[in-house]
Each structure stands twice: as structure tokens, then as C-alpha cells.
Write a structure and sequence with these properties.
Blueprint: H1 7-27, H2 33-44, H3 50-54, H4 65-74, E1 78-80, E2 86-88, H5 90-110, H6 116-136
Amino acid sequence: MTERRLIGYQVKRLDQLIEATFDQTVESVGMSRREWQTLNTIIRDPAADLTEALRPFWEVDGESITDVTAALAARGWITRDADGRYAVTDTGLTVHESAARAVGIVRRQLADGIAEAEFATLTGTLARMIANLEQAG
């Protein structure tokens, strides 16, 4: 039988595995994890405040959103209009589609053997725990 560990250990270990696996996955298609997160956010919501949308991903490393958007623009994957809004280029969309396929495989592996209802319960429980600690802080 597997030893039961406290939730802090399990959440931290899962986070480490997710980070490492996703890093490796998007690197295999030619981008960093931060580039993937930024490009994906721009595609999902071109009007998003990138600083706010990506804040949880930048808490532990020294790379800035400005660095990442500059790298994406230098690659020709995004542009910025006169109002400062980002848009994804055709090349950026192609790269994103390739990365999205690879990320989709990892997401399916992550949830393998977990029923949809179980997954929904898990994510709901984690969201509630986060909200509890945010409110307490």
C-alpha cells in the first residue's frame, strides 16, 4: 500500500511533476513554458491583462512578462497594436496548434483513470481550499 502523505506534500509534488512535464512538452515543440502560457492566454483572450492572468506562473522565477512577450514578438509569433493590445500572427497560431496538441496529450495522461466527476470534485475541492486560505490571509 502506498504511504499516505499530507496534502501539502501531494500538492507540491504534483506541481513539480506538472511543471517538469509541461516544460519538457512545450520545449519539444520549440518554446518555453512561459511562452506557451503567454501565447495561450493571448489566443484565449486578446484583451486579457497579461500581468493579472499570468501572475501565478511568475511567482517563483525571474523571467518577466515583458521578456516573454518581447521574445514572442521577435519570433514573429505576436504583434502589438497602437493601443498596446497583443495579437497572434499566423505563424504564432501554427506554433500554438502544435504545442496545444502536445499539451493535450499530457493533460489526458494527467487525468488517466480519473472519472470526469472525480476530476470535477478534485478541482472544486482544491479551489475551495485556495479560497479558504486566501480569505484567511
